[in-house]
Amino acid sequence: MDIFELAYRALDLTEQTGADEAEIFCVSGRSIIVDIHRDTIDMAKESLVSGIGIRAIVNGAVGFASTNNPLRVEEASILAVKSARIRSGDPEWSGLPKKDKPAVVRDIFDKRIADIEIESCIDYTARMIKGAMAIPSVVPTSGHFLCSSSTSLILNSHGVEIKDQDTAISASIDTITKDSDLSTASEFDLSRKLDIDFYKIGEKAALLASRSRDGVRAQTQDTAVLLEPMAFADILENTLLASLNSDNVQKGRSSLIGKMGKKIAADDLSLIDDGTLPAGIGTASSDDEGTPSKRVEVVKNGMLQSFLYDCYTAGKEKRESTGNAMRASFTSTPSISIRNLVVQHPSSDIVAETGDGVIVNTIIGAHTANPISGDFSVEARNSFLIKNGEIASPVKSMMISGNIFDILRGIDGAGKDVRRIGNVITPTIRVSKMRVVG
């Protein structure tokens, strides 16, 4: 009996053991990892994973168990029910999702990735190294290649039955200059399809490291700051997203409490979380508890329109889930997360339109931000001065600090360089005034 047949068996067992409601999350997948150490491929390995996660609900209390052993599925079903029984019932539990038509999505599965051989993965990784070595005086220091394919199945006692197949591929590399004026840079790409230019990843990282040499000191001041996609996505994920989480809102841990329908960002800025985005990293026909994926307008023309909900938090407000229940793996229960957060703003040549300022490629330390207040102070890496509408000298060392809600209100421009940074899709954005510490 394969893992998916066992999933149906687990649903029956969990209900027979005494669950009022039961949910089965089953996954089977394959991944290949290749690591780079300096300019050499250090390790390559293939892994297989399969397992079942079981949620059992008894009198509003939720129990959970998981297993990757087909012989222990019955034991996991019993354990999930026992776990629920020893917990206090939650009077606000409104039930697992009901059966509904899953969303139609496309471009999340590529058979070439599903069938890829480890030798091809090594070749792609070698191309990335070659690209980095093509720039004189720059060498790679480390890197990573990962591709995966998986099939997931969600079942519950209300008739939900959703099966999805997906693939993903990603690659990254870190580089450093060889001369006395050390400068580092990194680059990466990821996709649902086998359409990445691996040579270009290495080349771009090496070029950025080379361009970042001979940096000057930045002046401490309030000035225009251009945040490139990697920097802006990093700030968003570590500041704003916690405040959009409906669980945090309901528990009083969000700066956006009482702001629904009010202006929180610049007039031209919109944020859309789209679980149906073609080829999106967070795209699937449903979220990880079986709610059909949706396109949710979170911020529209600067106005807060929606928080992000799973089935439980939506039930507490007697509204529909936005389809934002996601899992790290079959060994964990769902939690609220973005699907594909798309940043929209009218685009233009914002460098040319910026008299003086700085442009920041990446940041370090965003994880230290305050997720409730949105305050942050981070080190800006691979940054450059902007003088008279042109990118000028690299900056040797610089900190930027601020508050995410001030940033959202201060955005007055966006570039044409839209990039997918994990589950965030954003262009470079310009903030009219931010604190720069040299």
TrEMBL record:
<feature type="domain" description="Metalloprotease TldD/E central">
    <location>
        <begin position="113"/>
        <end position="212"/>
    </location>
</feature>
<dbReference type="InterPro" id="IPR002510">
    <property type="entry name" value="Metalloprtase-TldD/E_N"/>
</dbReference>
<feature type="domain" description="Metalloprotease TldD/E N-terminal">
    <location>
        <begin position="22"/>
        <end position="76"/>
    </location>
</feature>
<keyword id="KW-0645">Protease</keyword>
<dbReference type="InterPro" id="IPR045569">
    <property type="entry name" value="Metalloprtase-TldD/E_C"/>
</dbReference>
<feature type="domain" description="Metalloprotease TldD/E C-terminal">
    <location>
        <begin position="221"/>
        <end position="438"/>
    </location>
</feature>
<dbReference type="InterPro" id="IPR047657">
    <property type="entry name" value="PmbA"/>
</dbReference>
<dbReference type="InterPro" id="IPR045570">
    <property type="entry name" value="Metalloprtase-TldD/E_cen_dom"/>
</dbReference>
<dbReference type="Pfam" id="PF01523">
    <property type="entry name" value="PmbA_TldD_1st"/>
</dbReference>
<dbReference type="GO" id="GO:0005829">
    <property type="term" value="C:cytosol"/>
</dbReference>
<dbReference type="Pfam" id="PF19290">
    <property type="entry name" value="PmbA_TldD_2nd"/>
</dbReference>
<dbReference type="GO" id="GO:0008237">
    <property type="term" value="F:metallopeptidase activity"/>
</dbReference>
<dbReference type="GO" id="GO:0006508">
    <property type="term" value="P:proteolysis"/>
</dbReference>
<protein>
    <submittedName>
        <fullName>Putative Zn-dependent protease-like protein</fullName>
    </submittedName>
</protein>
<dbReference type="InterPro" id="IPR035068">
    <property type="entry name" value="TldD/PmbA_N"/>
</dbReference>
<keyword id="KW-0378">Hydrolase</keyword>
<dbReference type="InterPro" id="IPR036059">
    <property type="entry name" value="TldD/PmbA_sf"/>
</dbReference>
<dbReference type="Pfam" id="PF19289">
    <property type="entry name" value="PmbA_TldD_3rd"/>
</dbReference>
